[in-house]
Specification:
Length: 223
Amino acid sequence: MRVLVVEDERRLAGIIKRGLIEEGYAVDIAFDGEDAQFMAETTSYDVITLDIMLPKKDGISVCKDLRAKKINTPILMLTARDSVEDRVKGLDSGADDYLIKPFAFNELLARVRALLRRESLSKNPKIQVGDLLLDTLSREVWRGDRKIDLTTKEYSILEYFMSHPNMVITRTMLEENGWDYEYDNISNIIDVYIRRLRRKIDGDTDDSLIQTVRGAGYRLKTA
């Protein structure tokens, strides 16, 4: 899962980013409204946390413009303004939720999870490919009768594969989905995670569900 944090207070932005990374999210930061809008328009995010008071372009305008361009990424607005009028204005601009500063990080995290659940509930919360089952609500994974324990990053990669069955997934696609802009794409970290997933998913079988497509990437076969 990838989150865009839009916050001009750099210390607060850093705290939010560190906390989300510890929970397994990939996180990018924008410090002004113009950068935020550009990043949201050019990168696929699962959630955006958007401060209202921003340099160059305020959060309300950013939110309105994103919605006008049919970018429907869930948006959690963050602001020190706590009047009912300000909250209504933020929600009417297209935001999905509203959090008033100062806030506890645990509450922000809970609201991010709630927005992700809301997105999942609009689809089938369970994804099945062959005898491999992934529950996006409980975050449990099963291969037949065998429960598979995955780390947060392993789960994120597998969810992406299972959402695109039989499709060739390139390294770039995996990087954009699971890592932020600071990720060093020279690293072999993707190969490491693919090997771990294969060991956990395939168990003692020699027939791997995640296939290497030479010169292209990987594919989760459907049969």
